[in-house]
Specification:
By secondary structure, the chain is of the alpha/beta class. It contains nine helices and seven strands, in the order βαβααββααβαβααβα. Bound molecules: cytidine-5'-diphosphate (CDP).
């Protein structure tokens, strides 16, 4: 008989600047779970494409490049970390060019397959909080703790502006929600949390009511 307890997956999905990264990281810290930022992996792949001069609009060229790229995902201080072809992309993940191209790159099925496999790998060994766009709907459809965090467009714009980022979030949301493969959707069994008027602590508190604590 298999006596290994299945690992817990907490899925946190939502649109750009909805607060999901801050919430997911703090939630993972309080639970003692590993924190996995799937957007950072899509951003790393996008940065790689830009660095290699791949024409982003040519999906075949992106697919060919991603197939041969060495994408290494591991953990540092219980948080996901990505390296690609031996390089650390972390300083580049929020560059305007990456913001502008990431929706296009992440819409390509082969990119999603490769990143999805890495995300599932994290949950093989540890309890995880994973944030993204399709975590509850596609990557971990059997997860029993799914949350969709949202905020009004106005609040989200202000949050991104406060980070001094050049990022067309409305265009990115539109592209993410309308793509064919794994679009941004509210999973059927997800709890929706509007974070517009809530602090990070308040959102984490709400989520913790639905997630078992490990002592
Ligand atoms: O931080 P922010 O919410 O602005 O974005 P992110 O989580 O870093 O994700 C960047 C982009 O990666 C998104 O706009 C999506 O195009 C893509 N993404 C995705 O397709 N699927 C995921 N699970 C996570 C991110």
């Amino acid at each position: 008989m298999n006596t290994v307890a299945p690992h817990i997956v907490v899925a946190i999905d939502g649109p750009a600047a909805s607060g999901k990264s801050s919430v997911a990281r703090e939630l993972a810290r309080r639970l003692g779970f590993v924190y996995v930022n799937s957007g950072a992996i899509y951003r790393a792949v996008t940065w790689h494409m830009l660095r290699k001069g791949v024409e982003i609009t040519q999906s075949d060229a992106v697919a060919t490049e991603v197939a041969s790229a060495e994408l290494v995902c591991d953990l540092v201080n219980r948080e996901s970390r990505v390296r690609i072809d031996g390089l650390d992309p972390s300083a580049h993940l929020r560059e305007p060019a990456v913001n502008a191209c990431v929706s296009s790159v992440s819409s390509i099925p082969l990119v999603r397959e490769k990143v999805g496999a890495k995300l599932r790998w994290y949950a093989n060994d540890c309890d995880v909080v994973v944030e993204g766009r399709d975590i509850g709907s596609v990557v971990f459809p059997a997860a029993t703790r799914k949350f969709y965090v949202d905020a009004s467009p106005d609040v989200r714009l202000k949050r991104r502006a406060a980070e001094r980022q050049h990022d067309q979030i409305a265009a990115r949301d539109q592209a993410d929600a309308s793509r064919q493969t794994a679009p941004l959707v509210i999973a059927r069994d997800a709890r929706v949390i509007d974070t517009s008027n809530l602090t990070i602590d308040e959102v984490v508190g709400l989520i913790l009511k639905h997630v078992p604590h490990r002592v």
